Amino acid sequence: MRRPPILALLAxxxxxLSAAWSIARGAEVSPSSVTSHYxxxxxxxYSDAHGAAVDLQKAVxxxxxxxxxxxxxxxxxxxxxxxxxxxxxxxxxxxxAIVDDWEGRVNAWPLDEGLIDYVDGKSYGDISDENxxxxxxxxxxxxxxxxxxxxxxxxxxxxAIKSLHEAGEVEANVAIGYHAIEFLLWGQDLNGTGPGxxxxxxxxxxxxxxxxxxxxxxxxxxxxxxxxxVADLEEMVGNWKADGAARKELAAKGDEGGLATILTGLGSxxxxxxxxxxxxxxxxxxxxxxxxxxxxxxxHNSHYYDETGMIALYTGxxxxxxxxxxxxxxxxxxxxxxxxxxxxxLDKAFEEARARLQAIKDKADSGEMAYDEMIGPDNxxxxxxxxxxxxxxxxxxxxxxxxVADLGLTIKVExxxxxxxxxxxx
Length: 426
Known about the structure:
This protein is mainly alpha-helical. It is built from 17 helices and four strands.
């Protein structure tokens, strides 16, 4: 993906930004100022994610109005361009209940895409013991039966598809969010761990020259899912405004609780979520279905910008979509004042993890090897790249835990069987 100038700036972000100022000011920084600025960064991050989703919405509207190879390519680019801004927010998860309770509406994965639209029966299959809606194909249906209930989908609306999300308490029934939109824009990636992403044709949205049937309903689903994403992100922007629910919840935790919230998010994303569920699991199974952006082959960017966001939340320095640099007291300053050696070790760990994820990103951006190829069973070079990043993220987590201990805090870092009990997932 060719990055616009602002993303290029983000890719050069390192921990040395404002380092001297941070360490010199560390003794003067209070926990309340750190948590307050953390809220400011959260607001800026979600505002950027919302703005990028609005751009995606405009591109989707243009695709629906005039389906063509050009408008489909523009919508796909807008989706990819929106991902870095959302991914940078993910360090706000785990510690903030408001974010965690909401997150599944926008970024749930992996998904059983047969719930939404047609699939390749040979590779996908036609039945699942765990999911009665495995091939429900909402786009081709007028109603969906879930147990004793029937959901009317004769007209596809944001409310209708939202009601199908995680239907039957099956997490793989992902009906909304970034990855549902991704599937609709790209279609299935039928290449396994070989080269190539999904290749859905623009004619799948063209009612005059329709391919694969139900083009009007497919367009309606894409429109509804995108509109819902924009609305959900707008809701989270509101939660982080000065009088928003997330700000109030954070303030109510007090100084120690607020700092623990920040570090819980960083530690849990670093370890159980990114190193574990999103990377190690796919590497153990050599399964492209376990890669995060599996239809678009954009996983390398999503992993990299998770790390970029963690660094921003730790340092208190964030670059917005408009190129503005937001700076203020970060938890890094408290760590440097309390325990300079542990803080320096964590700085180094963040830099190493970012560099390892940068190596994956560079390899994929060059076109030489996509992320799903890297986790393939007969790719020692790719496997090494991914494992090196996993190891660096685990080391980063241990360095976070060392800082937590020296600050006198207690947190619980989310785990993953893929790291803690790998025999359970083989």
